[in-house]
């Protein structure tokens, strides 16, 4: 990439996404619609590759596309300043991930206990007072990790 404009396929390949993903990000407002060549091809500045990589990393970190959009907008408003809101949003996302991990660990423990107890029939287990599965309804505000 020599500082010149890139066509859709070149940008997609350099960023490791498909052309359809690139167009989807346009529709979602994550990327601005680029100018077109005389032949009608979209022409992207090289920084689009970086923007796509940022979007993909944010998604791998668990951010939704709406959250990614907010992060990108915040960074644009601050014109690349060090504090783009990522730290606060990352803290919130980390807390969310920690809650999910706790829920999954609870589910794991219930499954292990059920296997160790030899539970093989949910209906029979529901009627058994000694079944380790969480058949009771959680208190208000509780999760539904044991339902499903």
What does this structure look like?
The protein is mostly helical and 148 residues long. The chain folds into two domains: 77 residues, Multidrug-efflux Transporter Regulator, Chain: A, Domain 2; 38 residues. It has six helices and two strands; from the N terminus they run E-H-H-E-H-H-H-H. The protein has a two-stranded antiparallel ribbon. Helix 1 packs across helix 3. The protein is elongated and about 75 Å long. The mean pLDDT is 83.
List the SSEs and their pairings.
Elements: E1 6-7, H1 8-15, H2 19-28, E2 43-44, H3 47-60, H4 65-77, H5 86-117, H6 122-127
Antiparallel strand pairs: 1-2
Helix pairs in contact: 1-3
Which keywords apply here?
single chain, 148 residues, mainly alpha, Multidrug-efflux Transporter Regulator, Chain: A, Domain 2, 2 domains, two-stranded antiparallel sheet, 6 helices, 2 strands, 56% helix, elongated
């Amino acid at each position: 990439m020599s500082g010149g404009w890139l066509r859709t396929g070149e940008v997609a390949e350099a960023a490791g996404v498909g052309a359809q993903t690139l167009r989807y990000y346009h529709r979602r407002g994550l990327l601005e619609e680029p100018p077109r060549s005389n032949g009608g091809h979209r022409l992207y500045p090289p920084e689009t590759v970086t923007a796509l990589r940022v979007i993909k990393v944010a998604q791998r970190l668990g951010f939704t596309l709406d959250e990614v959009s907010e992060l990108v907008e915040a960074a644009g408003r601050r014109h690349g300043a060090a504090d783009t809101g990522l730290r606060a949003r990352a803290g919130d996302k980390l807390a969310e991930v920690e809650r999910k991990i706790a829920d999954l660990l609870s589910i794991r423990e219930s499954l292990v206990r059920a296997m160790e107890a030899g539970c093989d029939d949910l209906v029979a287990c529901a009627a058994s007072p000694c079944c380790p599965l969480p058949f009771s309804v959680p208190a208000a505000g509780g999760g539904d990790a044991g339902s499903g």
